[in-house]
Amino acid sequence: MINMTLSKAQEAFRDYVHQVALEEMRPISLECDRTEQIPKSFFWNMQKRFRAGAAAQARMQAQEGEAQQENVFSMLSQEELAWGDAGLSTAIPGPGLAAPPILSQGSPEQQAKFLSIYADDRLHWGALALTEPGIGSDVAGMSTTAVLDGDEWIINGHKHYITNGARADLIITFATVDKSRGREGIRPFVVPGGTPGLIVGRIEEKMGLRASQTAELIFENCRIPKDHLLAGRERSTKAGFKAAMGTLDATRPMVGAIALGIARAAYEATCQWVSEELPIGFSAYKRRAIDEELEELRQELEMARFLVWRAAWMADQRIPNSKEASMSKAYAGGLIMKITAAAVRITAPGEHSETKQFIQKWFRDAKVFDIFEGTAQIQRLVIARRMFPKVNIP
Length: 394
Ligand SMILES: Cc1cc2nc3c(=O)[nH]c(=O)nc-3n(C[C@H](O)[C@H](O)[C@H](O)COP(=O)(O)OP(=O)(O)OC[C@H]3O[C@@H](n4cnc5c(N)ncnc54)[C@H](O)[C@@H]3O)c2cc1C
What we know:
The protein is of the alpha+beta class. The chain is built from eleven helices and seven strands. The protein has three domains: 8-94, no CATH class; 101-235, Butyryl-CoA Dehydrogenase, subunit A, domain 2 (Beta Barrel); 244-387, Butyryl-CoA Dehydrogenase, subunit A, domain 3, CATH 1.20.140.10. The protein has a four-stranded antiparallel beta sheet, with no helix packed on it. It has a three-stranded mixed beta sheet with strand order 1-4-5, covered by helices on one side. The longest helix has 33 residues, at 284-316. The model has no long low-confidence stretch (mean pLDDT 91). The chain binds flavin-adenine dinucleotide (FAD). Residues 97, 127-131, 136-138, 161-163, 209, 214, 368, 371-372, 375, 377-378, 381 line the site of flavin-adenine dinucleotide. The site of flavin-adenine dinucleotide has 21 residues, from strand 1, strand 3 and helix 11. Belongs to the acyl-CoA dehydrogenase family.
């Protein structure tokens, strides 16, 4: 039975990350959103604080004799960081989205080789490149190719909307080794940033998550060593691709946690506005209606948290969680839209204040949670396929 009470180590870790979000992210959040730039000091501060936090977390877990719970800890961290600023949180140095495929698909040698670079004293990032112009939800038609030439793979193709794509040291790039085999031909490759033939194209100007870097990547005869194919040639079956996509079961609850963090920030700011900034003369019946709405939203926040915690906990227990991961992402992704829209509406009257600026930013940030890591429609398909396995849902 899932236990919804945090251990001492988990609580201490969450409080630590919350403090980091409060001190390092909130003060620069609005300015980074406006300029789409992040000061370099932010990267160094976050690297320092997270290394210290990770060491303390490991010590406390060991003292309390807790089993490995990387998904639960990551989920707690994502919610707090997104409460600080979700755009900035994607830019924190580390392997990021490159880590799950390396950990789940890489051999022990590949894991050691590729992840060790993130342990030195410099700043490093990772990225995952799946989406192409015209290929997002349905990757079967992927057009990026990988051809083996002696001891090297030659990658050709075009990816877009890649988070941290222009600054990543390693880009897990999905390409097909045989277009005629659709999904079965798709493999993950590790492409080091700066490899000749890897060209960084446009950096997107976005409505929300503006501090997050979203890049176009072009591969023109980009050569990488043969052993940069994750999962090896023996995985050249549908099962291999499914396993690679299975990393989404770990990352979707994290995206749900990020949505939850922004939704909670907007909710808290609205409650604060109602108690401190409500214009004089606001009628009692309007105030009562707002209180009732906030109470309902509070319940929905708790429901989203339950779905996210359950999916992350299942991932740690190695219990298959595709349905639950999609539910958590779909529910939190819808709720963030609802809460941020309500926050903008409720706080519309009165003076323009910093609270309102934050709320408007979170409203813009919210939309992407309906798009990346699988749109809401795709989550519903995943859930339906798991609920009705005998029905052929395309
Ligand atoms: C800020 C941002 C960051 C991103 N970061 C990354 C990243 O780091 N790496 C990466 O690889 N990608 C990234 N993406 C891309 C993102 O994952 C895709 O945009 C998303 O998967 C949707 O794909 P698409 O844009 O091609 O839209 P499409 O797949 O073309 O979808 C368009 C519409 O059709 C609907 N649709 C599609 N298929 C079906 C179906 N079978 N049934 C019902 N409806 C359907 C969708 O729900 C959507 O409403 C990012 C996107 C954004 C905006």
